Amino acid sequence: MELYQLRTFIAVAEEGHLTRAAKRIHTSQSAVSGQIKALEEEFGVPLFTRSPKGMIVTEQGQTLLAKAQQALSAADGMLDTARTLRAELTGLARVGLNISAAHRLRTAEIMESLRTTHPGLTVHFINSMSHLIDADVTEGKLDGGFMYGEPSNELDGLEVDRTNMRVVAPVQWKDRVLGAPREDIIHMPWVWTPPECPFNQVAKALFGNEQPAPNAVTIADDEALLLEFAAAGSGLALMCEDEARAARDQGKIVLWEKSPGSVPLYFITSRRRSDDKLIRALRSSVQAVWHKTAVTA
């Protein structure tokens, strides 16, 4: 006796017809008939009586039908328990990255953590921007992602870091920038960021509400573009401190001495999917790598 034979027995009993049972379990009518016959021979009792209207379960069949249902339920429950014990998780996870320099987000460490705990899971890392990652996680296009700034209300945010911002300037402006007061800095030409960019909030704080609009020579929403324009002499720009210091050490730009503020770095997931095994696995690995406690935002 095999489990698939018991499934066939139950399907025929519930459908009352060989053809409908065969369609339900995606096999042929002859295979269904052969499995019922094999069970009747093994049990030594008739399970059905055949009539022009279909298959009618016998009295002995009714007794065995209840046992068959119990056996399948127990087998399915055992498989569910085994999956839970193995923490089996397969498929594809889509994670947005708001920084092209993936090492700053510890993606290799996160991937290694997931491979250890969920070897059947594949992760697709997708480069994007903070405000787009926020929207895509909300809409379900991404399972999780990193972003600067505060996440939307529909999202759970795990704050993993806080990044200081720095004002970067062309090398040829060194004498104008180093030691310059804030009043001079805010009146210089700027490579500005769009309103949805988290850097924009820090820039606005630097300027202050009472100040005139910045002298924006261009607008860019990518950190690599901000660096490229600043290095080319277009104007000042705001960058994360790690990237700004690296660019300075390479002789591409100079740094104003003061930090105008900082932005939080979050790993975000959908709040409505908080019980999803995939979401729990992603958050657990990020927490393990960053050694942080979840902060719901």
TrEMBL record:
This is Transcriptional regulator, LysR family. One of its GO terms (molecular function) is DNA-binding transcription factor activity. Keywords: DNA-binding, Transcription, Transcription regulation. PANTHER family: HTH-TYPE TRANSCRIPTIONAL REGULATOR, HTH-TYPE TRANSCRIPTIONAL REGULATOR GLTR. SUPFAM superfamilies: Periplasmic binding protein-like II, Winged helix' DNA-binding domain. Pfam families: HTH_1 (PF00126), LysR_substrate (PF03466). Belongs to the LysR transcriptional regulatory family. Residues 1-58 form the HTH lysR-type domain. Gene3D superfamilies: 3.40.190.290, Winged helix-like DNA-binding domain superfamily/Winged helix DNA-binding domain (1.10.10.10). It comes from the Bacteria.
